[in-house]
Amino acid sequence: MSRVRRPSRQTVAVLDALAAKASDWSHGYDLCRALGLKAGTVYPILIRLAERGYVETAWEQDAPQGRPPRHLYRLSATGAEQVRELRRAEAQPTLRRSRVAGRRAPGNGAAAGAQA
Amino acid sequence: MSAGATPTAALPGPVTRRTAWLAVAAALVALGAWILVVRAGLAADDDPGIPPVEVLVGAVFFGWPHALAAATAVVATACAAVGVDAPARLLAFATSGRRGRRDEWGAAMRAELASITASPRERLRFAAGCSLTALRRGWGRSPWIVAAACAPLFAALTVALSRASLHGSRTGSLWAVIYGPPQITLLIVGFVAAWAERSMRTGLEHAVAALAGILIGVLAAAIPEGALWAREAGVFLLDGDAPSTPLTAAGGALDALKATTLSWGLPHWLPWPVLGAAAGAWLRGRARAVT
Fold first, then answer.
1. B54-82 pLDDT per residue, tens
2. Does B119 contact chain A (CB < 8 Å)?
3. From the list B111, B130, B132, which residue is nearest A68 (CB)?
4. Are the Cβ atoms of B4 and A38 closer than 8 angstroms?
């Protein structure tokens, strides 16, 4: 399995927010509000994710009169795979930790000794 | 590239009468600053009896690039900062003059701001964040290549002229390096980059990077050379003048540093990135209008 470099907490939050909406499009400002992050944090993340192909972008088709079309964002297939990968990587240390904790538990230690 | 039609790029606004007056005011402020600098310089030289007309002539001689650059910067800023309110103007300025994908992200931020009707404060917060993003991410790689090329070039020029003068006439060499070649380089770099990309901002970014490279290159060479001149000739690297008291190596190095950053170098270089970039973008725009 390829090694996944852990992205920043904010990047994970943006990926999670986009993953939660599945194939629906999101707006930049709505992401900022939903995550409680500033535009100066969210936009660099969106730009980077789009450059890496994790996020698809599009322009709003039916913008109301007098307002320019907004830019829309959603996870690409690669992005969705990346989120799954991150969640797997997130779950693994927890499993390892729980196994270690289990081995150190007094009852388990006795069982391990009995097995040996 | 995004699906769907990209909104049109932010168009520069017209030069209004107010902008023209602001530009004139900026030029006069720059010239006024130079009058003070020339007067202070003459007073420091114990030559306070110079008539005011000559002070003015000196200020115009040294300060005209600053006055022109100040006026140009005011006009360029006013024309780029177009919008319905202060946040919109701020973001329009920060995202102006971009090409390709960078322009698309600028358009995305401007469109998003247009949809925010919550409160002026919220609009300003959003615009400030987006502006920082646009200004930070806009540079690309080529300005750094220009800076990386300028630094060793000017370091080599400084050392070459210094050694040639030290083993020859000993009339100093730093002045010839820092007054003329950097201005020409900055003008050319700004002009070419702005012309190639049809963008004053691009020209400015390349020329500012070149300025940083030139400054680093000259300082890296001039400081040790100034110390060398003090040790071997007892005079300043700048112009070969001998001080009234014996010159130490530290004194020679410090004089080279001051000449490059305070008196003859950097202050005289500053207008040229603006002038080169503005000239390149303006002439390219005119050429396109003609063809």
1. 889 999 999 999 999 999 999 998 888 88
2. no
3. B111
4. no
Residue of A nearest to B10 (CA): A68
Q: Answer whether residue B236 shows pLDDT above 80.
A: yes
The CA–CA distances, whole Å, from A89 to A2, A14, A95, B62 equal: 11, 17, 10, 63
Q: Rounded distance, CA B190 to CA B267, Å?
A: 17
Helix (H, G, I), strand (E, B) or coil at B10: coil
Spell out which residues of chain A touch residue B4, defining contact as CB-CB under 8 Å: 58-61, 69
Q: Is the ipTM of this complex over 0.90?
A: no
Q: In chain A, positions 11-40, which contact chain B (CB-CB < 8 Å)?
A: 27-29, 32, 38-40
C-alpha to C-alpha distances, B207 to A13, B121, B190, B227, B271, nearest whole angstrom:
38, 35, 5, 30, 10
Residue B112: closest C-alpha in chain A: A70
Cβ contact B125–A59 (<8 Å): no
Provide mean pLDDT across the span A32-40: 94
Q: How many CB atoms sit inside 10 A of residue A20's CB?
A: 12
Q: What is the mean pLDDT of chain A?
A: 80
Which chain A residues are closer than 8 Å to B130 by Cβ?
39-40, 43
B230–chain A nearest CA distance, Å: 50
Which tens digit of pLDDT belongs to each residue from B192-220? 999 998 889 899 999 999 999 999 999 99
Per-residue pLDDT tens over the stretch A89-110:
877 765 555 555 555 444 443 3
How far are the Cα atoms of A19, A35, A37, A84 from residue A80, in angstroms, in the given order? 7, 19, 22, 6
Distances (CA, A) of B172 to B161, B216, B267: 9, 20, 20
Domain ranges within chain B, ordered by starting residue: 17-135, 142-290
**What percentage of chain B reaches a pLDDT higher than 70?**
91
Q: How far is CA B215 from CA B108, B115, B186, B195, in A?
A: 37, 44, 12, 24
- How close B205 comes to chain A (CA, Å)? 20
